[in-house]
């Protein structure tokens, strides 16, 4: 993975340099609508801290905040009305997975029947 770039789009969103359609925020995370949605509901959840580029960069010491990020994503999915029919949580890591921003993030996808992946 590459080194963390503090000028990446998500870091700039965190610093309010770039506007976003925020749907959730707390002390640790910010969630906003994806500008190029792949489903009727496509929300990105990012940690407020900068430095972690991708899932491949995670360490055991990251388990706490990473778990809380998944819990925050489930709260957001519930608030968006996705819990009854279902939704997908996705993390991409690296170029083969088409990770576009080198700031760790979690996608919430739902609002329609999603194609099978596995």
Could you explain the architecture of this structure?
The two termini are 25 Å apart. The chain has one domain: HIT family, subunit A (2-Layer Sandwich). The model has no long low-confidence stretch (mean pLDDT 96). By secondary structure, it is an alpha+beta fold. The protein is globular, with a radius of gyration of 14 Å. It contains 2 helices and 5 strands. It has a 5-stranded antiparallel beta sheet with strand order 1-2-3-5-4, with helices on one face.
In short:
The protein has 118 residues and is an alpha+beta fold.
Averaged pLDDT = 96
CATH topology: HIT family, subunit A
Tell me the name of the CATH homologous superfamily: HIT-like
Total count of strands: 5
Oligomer: single chain
Strand order of the largest sheet: 1-2-3-5-4
* N-to-C SSE string, H for helix and E for strand: HEEEHEE
Assign the CATH architecture: 2-Layer Sandwich
The computed structural class is: alpha+beta
Beta content comes to 15-25%
- The CATH class is Alpha Beta
